[in-house]
Each structure stands twice: as C-alpha cells, then as structure tokens.
Amino acid sequence: MNILLHNVAVPGIILNILLLYLIKRFSAKGLGAYKYLLSIFAVYDIYLTIMHAIIDLGAVVTEHFYGVVSYNHLDTSAFAPTPVRSVLSPSNQITRRTC
Q: Mind listing the UniProt keywords for this protein, alphabetically (predicted)?
C-alpha cells in the first residue's frame, strides 16, 4: 500500500473519531438536527477512508473513457462468477472479454 495513503488514512480515521466525540460531548442544544448530520458525515468519511485504503483505487482517463480501477486484486467471485475485464478497442469502444 502506498505510504502516502497511510499518511492520510490513519489521521483521517483518528480525526473523524475525535469529531464524533466532540459532537457527542460538546454540541449545544441550538445545533438541533445539524449535529446528527455532522455525525453521519463523519461516520461515512471513516467508512470511505477504510474502503479506499483496502481497495487502493486509481483513475483511468482517456479522451472518450473514464473509470476506476483497483491496484490490488480482491476476490470478486461473489460479483462475477466468470472473470470479466473491460478493455479499449482501437475504435475506443469498450469491449468485454471473458478471461
């Protein structure tokens, strides 16, 4: 895993947990439902940080195509019983091949 990812993921998780504590402990009554919205954002950010660290995403951008790829190969047999990969053909059309 990339060292930069560790440098961002670990503080991101710690600071969001700290934010959840501060919301729970020190939020004023005047915030109302806004404190719940902040809590949802913090929990979702923790989730996304963990998933990004596990999946290790990268972007693929060309003139007619954009997508997201994973640099590590997780077991995807639950999602696709036959491994399938998408490739760009010479005419820049996406074709699907069975491996």
A: Membrane, Transmembrane, Transmembrane helix
